């Protein structure tokens, strides 16, 4: 079994021009796939906000999807983790002085 960090179909995940495209331009993991020959055993994909905090994590062991979403407070501290089902991110509230 081998760990592959390239996008399905080849190429990089974003415009970082990195041929080993499992990471974004800031060095954060975007996608990892574990392969046995040409068969995908497992896949992990991540998304991040502008502050670099992980927003979502999707694992796909054996063709299933297991999703998590992460919610942070105004101090960028982890407030909640939502597992499974449809993930809907709450809208940010703006405090106006």
UniProtKB/TrEMBL annotation:
Disordered: annotated segments: 1-26
Lineage top rank: taxon: Bacteria
Designated name of the protein: YD repeat-containing protein
């Amino acid at each position: 079994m081998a760990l592959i960090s390239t996008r399905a179909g080849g190429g990089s995940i974003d415009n970082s021009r990195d041929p080993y495209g499992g990471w974004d331009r800031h060095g954060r993991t975007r996608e990892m796939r574990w392969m046995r020959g040409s068969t995908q055993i497992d896949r992990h994909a991540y998304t991040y906000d502008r502050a670099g905090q992980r927003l979502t994590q999707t694992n796909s062991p054996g063709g299933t999807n297991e999703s998590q979403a992460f919610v942070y407070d105004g101090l960028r501290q982890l407030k909640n983790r939502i597992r499974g089902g449809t993930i809907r991110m709450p809208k940010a509230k703006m405090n106006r002085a």
